[in-house]
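Protocol step 4 of 6: structure prediction from sequence.
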Amino acid sequence: VYGGDNPGEYFQQYPGRFKLWHVKDMDETTEMETTEVGKGIINFQQIFKQQKLAGMEYVFVEQEHFTREPEESIAISYHYLKNLTAF
C-alpha cells in the first residue's frame, strides 16, 4: 500500500501464493511513522477479507515508532488482527 500498489490485485493474479504476511500500519502525518495495526491509515479490513484467496497462514507485525510501551503496542495490534483473521 505504501508503495502505491493494491494487495488485492496481487492476490487475484497469484492466488494462494502469499502465505506469510508482513504488515505494518502508518499514521496520518507527513512523516508517516509506523503505528499499531488498525490505528493508522491502511485499510486492513479490506485487505484481510482476501486472506483465504491469498493463502495467508502467518502474519508478522513490524512497528518502528512507538508512542506507548512496545508491549502495549503489540497487544493492540494483536487484538485488532485477531478479529480479522480466519484462524
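Step 5 (inspection) to follow. DSSP finds four helices and four strands in the chain.
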